[in-house]
Amino acid sequence: MKLYFHPMSGNSRRALLVATHLGVPLERIVVDLTAGEQRGLPHLARNPNAHVPVLEDDGLVLWESRAIMQYLADKTPGQTLLPTDLRGRADVTRWLFWCAQHMAPANTVLVYQNFVKPLMGRGAPDPVEVARGEALVAQYAPILDAHLAGKTWVSHDRVTLADYSLASSFALAGPARLPIADYANLRAWLGRVQELDAWQRTAPPAPPARATAQS
Ligand SMILES: N[C@@H](CCC(=O)N[C@@H](CS)C(=O)NCC(=O)O)C(=O)O
After folding, report:
1. Whose CA is nearest to atom 5 of ligand 1?
2. DSSP letters of 2-70?
């Protein structure tokens, strides 16, 4: 299997986390987002959205990070990241959709303004966009924080795709200045995910100084 990805991409991290957790070997191919390679014809043929990650497996070309997570889990006999019973699976799927629709887009506004723009030399963060991102995080992060009260993991009593999907969207919480200081349950949970072997083994290289100087 081949994974087209970028090391700094939180969406790519989802696929890497699941493959690493499950011990699925992947040939990793970097798509250089900083050089615009995602908009070149070879990559557009893989994903017309011009995004990473993309998984290729024996003729299947799959984009959308959470679809890739599910595919890798479903393909692995005996895995525990995605429950196989109807209700258990529905709960994990609920959080995957919530992540895709609400939490990740909120975080992404601030990741772009506070991290990507300085990194790519695209100018200072736009205060209007930063305020919009902060308001969105303030709308959704308390929901996750309240859900995590008294819990170790987002769904079930073990790590699932829900944890890896959501934690990936908080991976750049520091440099993106995500306003999560008030959410103790969320921060404790994120710390637990970040201690996991798969998280440590998929850590991106340190970002260039221009981006970290903003954090
Ligand atoms: N919904 C997609 C989002 C993918 C996405 O936005 N990937 C970013 C990297 S984190 C990307 O490829 N950006 C390239 C660009 O915007 O030009 C997924 O979950 O896979």
Report:
1. 51
2. EEEE-TT-HHHHHHHHHHHHHT---EEEE--GGGTGGGSHHHHHH-TT--S-EEEETTEEEESHHHHHH
**Model confidence pTM above 0.85:** yes
Per-residue pLDDT of the chain (215 residues; tens, 9 = 90+): 999 999 999 999 999 999 999 999 999 999 999 999 999 999 999 999 999 999 999 999 999 999 999 999 999 999 999 999 999 999 999 999 999 999 999 999 999 999 999 988 999 999 999 999 999 999 999 999 999 999 999 999 999 999 999 999 999 999 999 999 999 999 999 999 999 999 999 998 876 555 443 33
Start-to-end Cα distance in the chain? 36
Residue ranges lining ligand 1, Cβ < 6 Å: 9-11, 33, 38, 50-53, 64-65
Hunting for tokens 């890497």 — which residue is that?
16
Residue ranges of domains in the chain, CATH in brackets: 2-74 (3.40.30.10), 86-212 (1.20.1050.10)
Pocket test for ligand 1, best of 11, 14, 39, 70 (most atoms within 8 A of CB): 11
Q: Which atom of ligand 1 is nearest to the CA of 6?
A: 9
The two three-digit tokens of residue 195, written as one number: 């201690």
| Token pair belonging to 152 | 């170790």
